[in-house]
Here is the input.
Amino acid sequence: LKPFSLLKRHRAAFADPLVVAMAAKVISKAELEAHKAPGDLWMVVDGDVYDVSKFAKVHPGGAQILEEYGGKDVTVDFYEMHRKDVLTKYAKLKVGRMEGAPAPAPHVPGEITAVPFAELPAFQGQNSPYYRASHKTLAQAVRAFVQTELEPIAESADLAGEYPELELRQKLGAAGLLAIGMGPGPQLKFAKSLGIPIPGDVDPDDFDYFHEMIRHQEIARLGRPGFVDSLGAGWGISAPAVFHFGSDEMRMKVGSQLLKGDKWSALAISEPFAGSDVAALRCTAEKTPDGKFYMVNGLKKWITEGMYSDYFVTAVRTGKTGTPKDVSMLLVERGPGLDTKQIKTTYSTCCGTAMVIMKDVKVPVENLMGKEGRGFLQIMYNFNHERWLIAVNLIGQARAAVSDTFMWARQRKIFGKTLIEQPVIRNKLASAAASLESLTALLETVTYDMCKTKGGAVGDRLAAPIALLKYQTTRSSWKIADECVQICGGRGITRTGMGAKVEGFKNYVKYAAVYGGSEEILADMAVKMSMKAFPKQAKL
Here is the structure.
């Protein structure tokens, strides 16, 4: 598996439709109709004329269907078969614009849409106490980056299973998307000192968890979970540990490398023998006789982004008491004795899910994060934010799926009517939308609590609400996915085309139900923690 190239392989295929249209020749109806023979095919979509003569030979559906539509306006039929971004991809085939056709609407990167349920309700007119102008500004800035730099390569990278190359990771760093992916904290001012901006020019002191939430959801809306996770799923749950628990030297050296995207990190906790039961891990770290190094031995499994990470924030056993007090955290750098092997799961391999094999890996004692025996508490410290993040991403993907399903229902005709004219379809859309907005409301409530709580997501009090948020998000997402797939039909189970985001969301729901603690573990934990505050005198 090779890393994909952001610029070399894809950028040349994309052009601004408005710029192309401004320079296009005017084509009459008679001239259009003159190009309708095999080998000489023109057709119209949205007023633009495309020469598909040569393209017909490589058209996935064969040349015959294009020959049937030669010399005609195929706008309606096109949108029953293709996503709008196909026109951007093949803008180079454009030869002119139809005489009398209105000027195309300008494309503004990052624009907020009016498509029902495609945006946070607060961005479509809802009165909300949670958002300020800076939240919308940041959303538009991140979306512009996603549309310009990520959308053009998302499908091909996801399907090919290719890891993101260093160039793309550095672009994410330079745009500030890595720094803000950790939420509010001192890393934001540190990033600015390194010349890294905050998207939308948000002041680090004003940055809150709603800004971070928006950042994650804008990328999640790409709808391709393997590709989305390749852009920092492992980085985002490991890099914070460097800043929270690392030494000043580690924060300066490794922290700066991570914020710039020059180096990458993954969180190595799960093992073949220890998943939700973190205290049962077997990976060991024993000091050398001179006390200068730890020798690390063990296996880590299902490590997201492990295949291309340079650093592994690793849970190890440094004691022999058989209790959680044996667990410590080490920053293990890729080197002699550390090997990674790709694990193929049901979504794309481009996110580098790995088995990490450590055999006599020599780690300087300076790479101990905090103190020995504090690892279990550090892991728990990180879990609240990780679980919140999983819910945030899943809800972002849900919104993309519901939005695309709405547009599909409006475009697709069946039995002489568009899908959305059928009462049963409107009922399914309402069911999916109601579940989506209920989850959004719960997410906003928990996020606001995080903003107002000292230390943010950290602490016992927020553990139960965040656990229930993740539990409810994964449970409800099954319902949303079911409704969307049923409306989209075969397209909802196809990795490309009109239903690609629905298919991606449907697959990712089960991942989210397992990641960061299974549904059953989190539900049980939330109830147990709630019982701690149960008044002894309370009776039915």
The chain has 18 helices and 15 strands. Residues 375-411 form the longest helix (37 residues). The radius of gyration is 25 Å.
